[in-house]
Amino acid sequence: MASRRDEIADHLRELIINGTYAPGDVLPSRAALMATYDASTVTISAATKTLRDEGLVWRVANRGLIVQDTRPLYITLSAAAPPGNGRGPWETACHQAGRDGTMQLISVERIPAEPDVAQALQLSNGTTVVRRVRHALLDGHVVMLDAAYYPLALVDGTLVAGSGKVDGGILAVLIAAGVLDPAAARVQELVGARAASKDEAEALRLRPGVSVLTAERVTRDDEAQPVELLHRVANARRIRFQSDDQPLRSV
Predict the structure, then answer these.
(1) Per CATH, the architecture of 73-242 is what?
(2) Percentage helix, strand, coil for the chain under 3-state DSSP, each rounded to 5
(3) 171 phi/psi in degrees, rounded to 5
(4) How many helices (H) and strands (E) does the chain have?
(5) Among 3.30.420.110, 3.40.50.11720, 3.90.1170.40, 1.10.10.10, what is the CATH number of 4-67?
(6) pTM for the predicted model, two decimal places
(7) Which terminus of the chain faces fewer neighbouring Cβ atoms within 10 Å, N or C?
(8) How far apart are CA 203 and CA 196, in angstroms?
(9) Do the beta carbons of residue 160 and residue 132 sit within 8 Å?
């Protein structure tokens, strides 16, 4: 059974999503919300904190809680960023939509491939791979979690295996290094949905058990050899996955 805090947060969230409170609007004061919901100041504070954690509202000094832009961002899974602009696919999608988006590098590790990773990359179990973990931020809030895997033998000595953020996106680096031919490369994508794990919910600032979008992408070179496995977990209210201009194929 939902707590009173969650009930109030759910109702306010719905009012924001359906446009009753538009971006830039100020939510009613704490006293007004206490009267509307017949709730204590502690309960109202907890409910509005939930909305702040989700990025739906921000507190502005001397103004109150300001509703943020909650429009979902549409991103193309199989996109590589145009060369030379310094932005990866995520930053490019945000820029084109007029939104503030950044990709934050969390870690780069060389690890033995687990069976599922090894199978996707057509490697033997335990083969060393490079794992790059990143968080995608939209308007200052984490909305998507990325974990990408690359065969070390393929990317050793490149920026992909380095410890720094790769400006312009990983695929752009692989294309520039001659590892990928964009005209011949192919991707296989699997999109789904499931309940967020505890760690995912914490990172995305969602309630445990809330549904998230998932995506798995395998990128192959012109000889059909896998060069990248990408796992994505996204806030389903803030992100939409899409494919553009795909040919219609018979089945």
Answers:
(1) 3-Layer(aba) Sandwich (3.40)
(2) 30, 30, 40
(3) -60, -35
(4) 8, 10
(5) 1.10.10.10
(6) 0.80
(7) C
(8) 10
(9) yes
